[in-house]
Amino acid sequence: MKLKFLGTGTSQGVPVIGCTCEVCISENPKDKRLRSSVMVTTDENKKILIDCGPDFRQQMLTNHEHTVDLALITHEHNDHVIGLDDMRPLIFKSGKDVPLYCYSRVAHEIKNRFPYAFADVRYPGAPAFELHEIENKPFQVLDTEVTPIEVIHFQISVFGYKFKNLAYITDAGFISDTEKEKLKNLDILILNCIRKFDPHPAHFILPDVIKLFEELQPKKLFLTHISHHLGVHDIEDKLLPPGMHLAYDGLEINF
């Protein structure tokens, strides 16, 4: 299997509109961060998208991706779901509804934001989705077992997802001891890290991630959901402890 980072930025993306900080004016492609999303390719070459934000169309074109067999949604914030309408070309081409797997709460929000996709009589150009409400227990999709990881993002529960010995978690500020048991001794752990300093009410910052790296002891840990406050990629990546890395858009990992 492999995982490709389609986007590694926060809800504002990097560069931030109107900002002239060192990161936002950087010409290094690794400092250009679209909204966070990944594409998992299974052993049978099936495509599992995690989150579908406002940059989905650009991400698919840039990475020469042509299909989405299903999508796993972490939560309902716009930077993770508002791109669902842009799945229309894939839906028209396949003639099939795209399956979406998420919390019941998130399914309700998706219906509210895209009511035309669920109307009894649909507009001919509307997208079409097949909603699957999941709970915090492993489930099988396509040829792959997926284990949800329940984390807290400010005051809401958010799902991370684990495949084999890799786990992807974004928009987390707290992980319970019970859920941490699912994350110990992984080959690859991917965690959100919004900035270096100043505690955030909804996201991990760098000291939190370093502490979790020492506690959970994955072989490798990649940071994602990164803001311009974390610093320039080529400098900050070298300052991380051995085994920790900044993810960047287009990075591909085999697992």
Automatic annotation (TrEMBL):
Key words, A-Z: Hydrolase
Gene responsible for this protein: phnP
Any GO molecular function: hydrolase activity
Domain Metallo-beta-lactamase: 34-225
Domain of life: Bacteria
Keyword Hydrolase in record: yes
Segments forming a coiled coil: none
Name this polypeptide is given: Phosphoribosyl 1,2-cyclic phosphate phosphodiesterase
Alphabetized InterPro entries for the sequence: Metallo-B-lactamas (IPR001279), RibonucZ/Hydroxyglut_hydro (IPR036866)
